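Hey, I was hoping to borrow your eyes for a little while. I've been puzzling over a protein and I'd love to understand its fold better. The fold is given in discrete form, as structure tokens running alongside the sequence. I'd be grateful if you could look everything over and explain what you see. No rush at all, and the record is pasted right below.
>
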Amino acid sequence: MAPDAPKEPAPAEPPPATRSDRSAWNWLLVVPVVLPLLTFLFNSDGPRLAGFPAFYWVQLAFIPLGVACTVVVYRLTRKRG
């Protein structure tokens, strides 16, 4: 029997593509974080909406704003295919 010949290494598979989350659209996610911290924008009693002072209804308006920003960023940065 012939001595064991060195075997060729199996062809290496290319490394998996790294996911790049570095999209400019991700900066839109800063808006729902920073905007509620700017209290001078809504630190007042008026205008009232349905009897609620501005402080309360503006805080509640930040919820749909955050959802909208998240949906926009998700839709514009998701991988297709």
